[in-house]
Specification:
The complex is a heterodimer of chains A (342) and B (359). Chain A has helices spanning 53-60, 92-98, 120-131, 137-150, 167-178, 197-214, 225-231, 249-254, 259-265, and strands spanning 9-20, 27-38, 42-46, 68-70, 74-77, 85-86, 103-106, 185-189, 217-221, 234-239, 242-248, 316-318, 330-331, 338-340. Chain A has 342 residues and is of the alpha/beta class. The relative contact order of chain A is 0.14. Chain B is an all-alpha fold and 359 residues long. Chain B folds into two domains: 34-300, Orthogonal Bundle (MetI-like fold), CATH 1.10.3720.10; 304-349, no CATH class. In chain B, 63% of the residues lie in helices and 3% in strands. Chain B is built from 15 helices and two strands. In chain B, helix 3 (34-56) crosses helix 4. Chain B is flat. Classes of the chains: A alpha/beta (342), B mainly alpha (359). The A-B interface holds A 22, 24-25, 58-59, 62-72, 88-93, 95, 280, 282-284, 286-287, 289-292, 299-300 and B 1-4, 6-8, 10-11, 14-15, 18, 20-21, 300-302, 304, 306, 313, 315-325, 348-351, 353, 357-358.
């Protein structure tokens, strides 16, 4: 599936903590998350709403509005040439230059991210102008035309206003804009939730194809696990602000180790393969202000046993899964003995 | 789907067993806002003087004495007028009339503007058109001239009459703003949802729409109070309202007619002018406070600073601060460990966007 994914990291998230609020009222929304995005890879990030997926994405790009605070960790970015650096230590100006040129974001509800009173072309050219003021207007227009071509929109749509485009087209425009500066990392925060299933598939197919041509990495955030299984290389599952399982997409689909991943997989009909019974997950996501002790999933877990309520399981490589490759996966669950660290 | 009771009880027990959260903390949050607190304090002082002013005034504001146009002294704190009247007493006695007219007119105008603006905005159709026309007519009437005409026509126009007239002529702008805001709220999803669940119109208006208008209403009220104060003072200043009835405008009227500025008698007009300015400032502060209180997003955006060893990190949109634990604890270089150590040169390489650097 997809091109050969190199083992070279492009974005390394290490022990990232993100809080909402400060002091006694602080709520930890992302807790000690370590995750690596490799070059050319599509990494899916799944979990219920409130599990911290979006907070993680906005935290690592430092786009989180107040009262969000990054409370430690590192986000090491490896540019295509030059030294790797920590995004969390960039100054405002460096961060501004870093954004969009190195890492771009397609927002949740991206369809509404276009300003209704400006033409598509001027909005696309704005981003180019902001990062390369010397670029001529002619060149910017050419680039905008080229970008629209990339996502399969006719060049005569450049002069359209957003309301003249369909939802799917607006979404494509957003993706084209995200690719405008040839970033290495594109973060997609539920970019297709507002679209119908047919359009979702079309856009995702296009994304995969573009990724092969332009060689960028994607951090794809969605609660829709079946979508991820379909087209991502690796999947990380978040629950209560922590990564609870991480595995290659196929492996996770065949054999989810964490009961939560298993529950998620049985909450969606699979796009392909044999029919399975949908069970869902009982209960609701935990209140971040009053996290259950131990594994935060234990009050809802059908397989909870003795240590779950008291001790937090460590994320690590499972020692013995009942089958398949345990190399590239990790899980945080007391059901599975792990080698700590990865 | 069976929701296991275990998770519910787990959550419940966790919330009750949280000792770090005193439940009473949130009650006085509006007062805790420094802007609101300062504004309310100042307004409270004005209200107190409005109530007790005539009793605590050291002299009868009309009483003449032999100290003519005397500078402030221990006897006359704010000096005296050309007739030897005590200006401090005049300011104190005048407070009641100003505050009374300001607030009564503000309340009258606000009630009218809510009733007319929200009704027009929510109901739409013929009602809206009619009310809009009325509001527009009131908008183009020059309010002050109307007030002058009415106060001169009405026999014995006291403070109450002036307040009512100002209130009834100054609601139109507020009504227009509220109508526009209501129009935009009317089709929000949560209003549609409320209607879909079968809520009655009055409940939709009072529970779904009005709370969202609070900031607008509050700023309208504050604006109208200011306008009413100004109108009343203007009326007195140009000599329309009775001279026996003291307010700050009357003081200014006499100061102007006796050429206080030419005489160098600054104490004649500065106290009254300052009283007006401070009242206006206090009302605006309350307005800002209400804004931040009503709009949670405004409350949290910017201004929140976190003191760390490497300087102050600001919470602001677009650049999430990074505060590591070792920025907060550990040995401090400052004496006694109380003051945060000064920021080392080049500390801006860490991710504290210092404010004002580049925004």
């Amino acid at each position: 599936m997809g091109p050969v994914v190199s083992e070279q990291p492009v974005l390394e998230i290490k022990n990232l903590n993100v809080d909402y609020g400060f002091g006694p009222d602080a709520v930890r929304a992302v807790n000690d998350v370590t995750l690596t995005l490799h070059r050319g890879e599509v990494l899916g990030l799944a979990g219920e709403s409130g599990s911290g997926k979006s907070t993680l994405a906005y935290g690592l790009t430092r786009l989180l509005p107040p009262p969000g605070i990054v409370r430690g960790g590192e986000v090491i970015y490896h540019p295509s040439e030059g030294e790797a650096y920590d995004v969390l230590s960039l100054s405002d100006n460096e961060l501004r230059a870093f954004r969009w040129a190195q890492t771009s974001i397609v927002f949740q509800g991206a369809m509404n991210s276009l300003n209704p009173v400006h033409k598509v072309s001027s909005q696309m050219m704005d981003a180019l102008k902001a990062h390369d003021p010397k670029m001529s207007g002619r060149a910017r227009l050419d680039r905008a035309r080229e970008l629209l071509g990339l996502v399969g929109i006719a060049a005569d749509r450049l002069d359209s206003y957003p309301h003249q485009l369909s939802g799917g087209m607006r979404q494509r425009v957003m993706i084209a804009m995200a690719l405008a500066l040839e970033p290495q990392v594109v973060i997609m925060d539920e970019p297709t939730t507002a679209l119908d299933v047919v359009m979702q598939r079309q856009i995702l197919a296009q994304l995969v194809e573009l990724r092969q041509r332009l060689d960028f990495s994607v951090l794809f955030i969605t609660p829709d696990l079946s979508l991820l299984v379909e087209f991502s290389d690796r999947i990380a599952i978040m629950y209560g602000g922590r990564i609870v399982e991480e595995a290659p997409a196929g492996t996770l689909y065949r054999e989810a180790l964490h009961p939560y991943s298993d529950g998620l997989l049985h909450s969606f009909p699979a796009l392909r393969g044999a029919r399975r019974e949908l069970t869902g997950i009982p209960g609701s996501p935990p209140d971040l202000r009053a996290m259950p002790g131990g594994c935060s999933f234990h009050p809802r877990c059908p397989k909870a046993f003795e240590p779950c309520a008291t001790e937090v399981p460590v994320l690590g490589q499972p020692v013995a899964a009942s089958g398949g490759n345990t190399e590239a996966r990790s899980v945080a669950c007391w059901l599975h003995e792990v080698r700590p660290g990865r | 789907m069976a929701i296991s009771t275990t998770d519910l009880t787990a959550v419940a027990s966790n919330t009750t067993a949280d000792p770090t959260r005193p439940p009473s903390r949130r009650h006085f949050r509006f007062i805790a806002n420094p802007k609101a607190a300062i504004g309310l304090t100042v307004i409270a002082i004005y209200l107190i003087f409005a109530a007790i002013g005539p009793w605590v005034a050291p002299y009868d504001p009309n009483a003449r004495s032999n100290d003519l146009v005397a500078a402030p002294s221990a006897h006359h704190w704010f000096g005296t007028t050309h007739l030897g009247q005590d200006i401090f007493s005049q300011v104190l006695v005048g407070t009641r009339s100003v505050v009374y007219v300001g607030f009564v007119a503000g309340i009258v105008a606000t009630v009218l503007s809510i009733a007319i603006g929200v009704t027009a905005g929510y109901l739409g159709g013929v009602v809206e058109d009619t009310l809009s026309v009325i509001a527009n007519v009131f908008l183009v009437i020059p309010a002050l001239l109307l007030i002058i005409i009415i106060t001169t026509t009405v026999e014995s126009a006291g403070d109450g009459t002036v307040a009512l007239i100002i209130g009834c002529t100054s609601w139109a702008w507020g009504a227009r703003v509220l109508r526009a805001q209501t129009l935009s709220l009317r089709h929000r999803d949560y209003v549609e949802a409320a209607r879909a669940t079968g809520e009655r119109t009055w409940r939709v208006v009072t529970f779904e729409i009005l709370p969202n208008l609070t900031a607008v209403i509050a700023s309208n009220f504050v604006g109208t109070v200011l306008f009413a104060v100004m109108s009343e003072i203007t009326l007195a200043f140009i000599g329309i309202s009775g001279q026996s009835n003291w307010n700050w405008g009357t003081i200014l009227f006499w100061a102007q007619s006796q050429q206080a500025l030419d005489q160098g008698a600054w104490w004649w007009f500065v106290p009254a002018g300052l009283a007006i300015a401070v009242l206006g400032t206090a009302l605006s502060l309350v307005n800002f406070g209400i804004d931040e209180f009503v709009n949670p997003r405004l409350r949290d955006s910017g201004g929140h600073k976190i003191r760390t060893r490497r300087g102050t990190a600001w919470m602001r949109v677009g650049f999430t601060p990074v505060v590591r634990d070792d920025d907060l604890t550990g040995p401090r270089r400052g004496r006694g460990g109380a003051a945060p150590a000064p920021i080392a040169e080049g500390a801006s390489t860490v991710s504290f966007g210092t404010r004002g650097g580049d925004r």
